[in-house]
Design brief:
Chain lengths: 187, 583
């Protein structure tokens, strides 16, 4: 009886040590939750979620501080993806954070009205505006995320929000209308 | 392979097969190629090929000649655009183009001057004397693209890279109903096609050419066989393949001719084959030897909605309405115009869009011919789609996942091996627009990838910006701290109390320093100790003899005093001399 207890205890100690060592020595750095959430977020860096950027919002979701429906640029699609990742129920976007844009937009500076104050450059979260003090500024269209953060600081209101029209190379086929998708009674 | 086919031999070559496919009513015309009058206005879209759109090199108001480059290639996968007649550039602007989206794209608009003056070109006597790179550059500069409809820059396919190519396949199958331009080219320019085959074989290092032609084009087959005989081209042979849609698909034709299957998402290159359209071979030949850039092509204008279905030699950039007019006009008002064939073509938004390098057919359908859009019913899992799929895919599975927006799963079912031939949708008894679902899924996946790339770039830029702001902040803080310290030090210098404290501190610091210095040096310490002992001894001795002397001698004894003095002087001298004698 005693020998059995001792033997099992000894085994438990040995395995415990081996496992403990292995857990430390062979630790695999998995994709942490924050990274996974951050990958789903659209990286607009607009701050509409009330966090200073997508990454802090991802951190807040991971910490359970923020809800998953605070990202208007991500839209309902983004909420669904977050819900899938986190095993939660999808919910509609929180209207307090804003509404989803119907189509992507970029900022456009009316260059002859720009006074070269650099305020928009400082506001741009992705350095998508070029210019210098007393010089005209302009937006690099390909880098602009359409966050609209440059618009409030502009003292002369020379920045427009321009929708990004699909071109021949970015156009997508519309989803075919399919009766089979309607509820059974209607079909 | 390796089967030398003698000219005119009727020996039937071995043929393989591809899965699925459909027998469709052909509706093909067998008409000679007709020229058409020069159009007044020509529109050249900058993107007439797969790859990056060309960059304009002319300005509004410039006069250009036929064959002159008006837009140059931008990047590797790109080709230049040439003016197809002489005239004046009147605009560089967005114009509606032939695209399923019906969207506009940047175009160069040319007003013809009617003189059709050609720019001088350079001709080549012997293409075999050229470096292969030079050969490819000529083809690239001539703007030659695949004329079968995909419009992939041909010079890229002339560069096999490290792959070993044994066979060139020329595609003359032209399997889609109504389209008949390749047949016309084969019948009327067979010599250039065979010479082009020799040139391409030379460029890619292939040993033989197989020209695959569907059995419903006897005129083309006969003309090519005759040209091969005339040129004694024993390494080129015509193989007649059964007419079955989509026999003209690159993968399907190669499989039928060689029995070799192109791997999933692979290229013919992967199995040692290069495949070009027959008209492309002719265009490559003319580009290299006659220095003719691609400024015209043969287009079939046909369909029940056209009065005189014709094969027309068309200057690129000609508006479709001019083509229709040249073919006798529309048989009925409101006929629907389709670019391409009935299976893979798309409806044109209007008749003013220009014919481009990829345009092989303009099909006009009367209202009565347009299949009414029947409502799609639920899938009954009959499996007819899977039976006809020439790529051997599972159309039902693709459909479920595409419909549900599970695009990653559609990729697991090899969505990108779908050639969009439309057989599945054609046979579906529930009228489900299957191929439209796949096209939708493909463009959605591409859009998602674009978005992801953009998001990654935005994340990187944002993180870089944050890091930069932090660095600047830290630098500012450090500068501020340094300034503060300097200020404090300056302040301390003028304060007497502080001064005193500093002095005391310095003294305190100095004292232990000397102590430590002494203890640090053992010799000095020993010396000091010895000195101290000597001093003590001397004091004691001095005291005792003096006392003794005082006791022995009377205080005012001059002899004793003199003696003591002498003793002391002697001792002093001795101690002084000792170090000298030691040394």
């Amino acid at each position: 009886m005693l020998s059995a207890v001792l033997a099992l205890t000894a085994l438990a100690v040995v395995f415990g040590l081996v496992l403990g060592f292995a857990a430390v020595r062979f630790k695999v750095e998995g994709d942490p939750l924050v990274e996974q959430i951050d990958k789903i977020l659209p990286q607009t860096q607009c701050g509409q979620c009330n966090y200073p950027g997508c990454r802090p919002y991802a951190q807040a979701i991971a910490d359970g501080e923020a809800d998953i429906n605070q990202c208007p640029p991500g839209g309902d699609e983004g909420v669904i993806k977050l819900a899938e990742l986190l095993g939660r129920e999808p919910k509609p976007l929180n209207p307090d954070n804003g509404v989803e844009k119907s189509m992507p937009t970029v900022a456009f500076i009316r260059e002859d009205e720009c006074i070269g104050c650099t305020l928009c450059i400082q506001a741009c979260p992705v350095d998508a505006i070029v210019g210098a003090r007393q010089q005209m500024h302009t937006v690099i269209v390909d880098e602009c995320t359409g966050c609209d953060l440059c618009i409030p600081p502009c003292p002369v209101d020379c920045i427009d929000v321009v929708p990004v029209e699909p071109t021949v190379s970015t156009w997508t086929w519309p989803k075919p209308i399919d009766v089979a998708e309607l509820p059974r009674e209607a079909a | 392979m390796g089967r030398p086919q003698t000219i005119g031999s009727q020996a039937k070559p071995q043929l393989w097969d591809f899965p699925g496919g459909l027998h469709l009513p052909e509706h093909k015309i067998d008409a000679p190629i007709r020229s058409m009058p020069l159009p007044k206005t020509l529109v050249f879209p900058l993107a007439q090929h797969i790859g990056a759109p060309a960059k304009p090199v002319v300005e509004v108001g410039d006069k250009v000649l036929r064959g002159q480059v008006i837009a140059e290639a931008d990047g590797y996968v790109s080709t230049p655009v040439h003016a197809s007649t002489s005239g004046k550039v009147i605009a560089i602007e967005e114009r509606p183009v032939a695209h399923p989206s019906g969207l506009s794209a940047r175009c160069i608009v040319l007003a013809s001057d009617g003189r059709d003056k050609a720019a001088p070109g350079r001709t080549v006597e012997d293409f075999k004397a050229l470096e292969l790179v030079e050969l490819r550059n000529i083809v690239r500069d001539a703007g030659v693209v695949g004329l079968g409809g995909a419009a992939f820059p041909s010079f890229i396919k002339l560069n096999p890279g490290s792959a070993r190519i044994d066979t060139l396949v020329l595609n003359g199958a032209e399997c889609e109903p109504y389209i008949a331009c390749d047949q016309a080219v084969m019948a009327e320019e067979p010599a250039d096609i065979v010479r082009g085959a020799q040139l391409i074989m030379h460029a890619v290092g292939a040993r033989q050419t197989i020209i695959g032609i569907e059995d419903n084009k006897p005129r083309g087959i006969a003309a090519l066989r005759k040209a091969i005989g005339e040129q004694q081209a024993s390494n080129v042979r015509v193989v007649v393949v059964p007419s079955r849609y989509p026999q003209g698909g690159e993968k399907q034709l190669i499989q039928t001719l060689t029995g070799r299957e192109i791997p999933s998402e692979g290229l013919p290159l992967d199995i040692g084959i290069v495949c070009h359209n027959v008209a492309t071979a002719s265009a490559v030949w003319r580009a290299v030897v006659y220095g003719e850039p691609l400024t015209e092509r043969v287009i079939t204008v046909t369909g029940p909605g056209i009065k005189t279905p014709s094969n027309l030699r068309v200057r690129l950039g000609t508006p479709v309405e001019d083509l229709v007019a040249a073919a006798g006009g529309l048989a009925e008002q409101g006929a629907r115009l389709v670019m391409g064939g009935p299976m893979m073509g798309f409806a044109l938004p209007n008749a003013r869009v220009p014919a481009v390098k990829a345009t092989n057919c303009i099909l006009a359908l009367r209202q009565a011919d347009v299949r009414p859009e029947e409502p799609a019913m639920p899938c009954i899992r009959c499996g007819a789609c899977a039976e006809v799929c020439p790529a051997g895919l599972l159309p039902q599975q693709l459909y479920w996942h595409a419909r549900a927006g599970e695009f990653d799963k559609t990729q697991n079912y090899n969505l990108f091996d779908c050639i969009e031939c439309g057989c599945c949708a054609q046979v579906c008894p529930s009228h489900i627009p299957l191929v439209q679902h796949y096209r939708f899924a493909k463009t959605e996946i591409w859009a998602e990838e674009r978005e992801k790339r953009k998001a990654d770039a935005a994340r990187e830029r944002h993180e870089f910006r944050n890091a930069r702001l932090e660095r600047i902040d830290a630098e500012k803080k450090a500068a501020r701290a340094a300034k503060k310290a300097a200020l404090q030090a300056k302040k301390a210098g003028g304060d007497p109390v502080g001064d005193a404290i500093a002095k005391a501190k310095a003294a305190k610091q100095a004292a232990p320093e000397s102590d430590s210095k002494a203890t640090d040096d053992p010799i000095a310490a020993a010396k000091a100790k010895a000195q101290a002992r000597k001093a003590q001894k001397a004091q004691a001795e001095g005291a005792v003899p003096s006392a003794a002397a005082a006791q022995e001698a009377p205080k005012d004894d001059p002899v004793a005093a003199a003696l003591a003095k002498a003793k002391a002087a002697k001792a002093a001298k001795q101690s002084d001399d000792k170090p000298d004698s030691d040394a």
